Amino acid sequence: MSLSAAGSLRLELSLVNPVLRAAAARVWRSDAGLPGRYRHYLRAMHQVIRASVPLMERAATRCETLGPDPLAPPLARYLRTHTEQERGHDDWLLTDAAASGTPPGELTAAVPPAHVAALVGAQYYWIEHGHPVALLGYIAVLEGNAPAPGLAGRLARATGLPQTAFETVRLHADLDDGHSADLDRLLDTLPLKPAQRSLVAVSALHTVTALAELFDRIATAPHVSESAHV
Known about the structure:
Blueprint: H1 5-27, H2 34-49, H3 52-63, H4 72-86, H5 89-100, H6 104-109, H7 114-129, H8 135-144, H9 151-159, H10 167-189, H11 194-220
């Protein structure tokens, strides 16, 4: 018996997600550099998450130009709904940065590095030159690897930073499981062709690789002091 589209994607991701989780664990290790790594994490994730709404809006708009494509209407509806669910999450990170002692302007003014552009930018390519359904692979990885429940509290205790500096971590731990279930239902109802299922998987696997690299760079970046922003 063949797996559903969602089941097949989850199986493929189960083979590579340990790499991503190991990279994240290196970021969150409890040592003197954790406050600096957390501030670095906030900056990097702001650069990623501020692209979420524009990406989904572009993919939904692209769906509306595809003509008689059976995927386009349900995919566009999902993306429009999910856009509203994600709107403003980049502002949460700015608020967390301020609570951690980092001026929000440092996040908004920072030049996004090439590895962040590679993570996000591949989705623009696939939306424009493949099919906007590729974005579902990206979403599956970001929401399928939500922060663990209790991580926000552990980080607050380990860093000495206020609880209010970890609201994005806490909220995504609460929200993303439900969003993952919504995505699985969509994948299993879309009339995906084999090439489209493959495109979703390629997008997801690229996202795992690029996100693991981002975490590795945070984990190994030098932090001169707890207040350093690397």
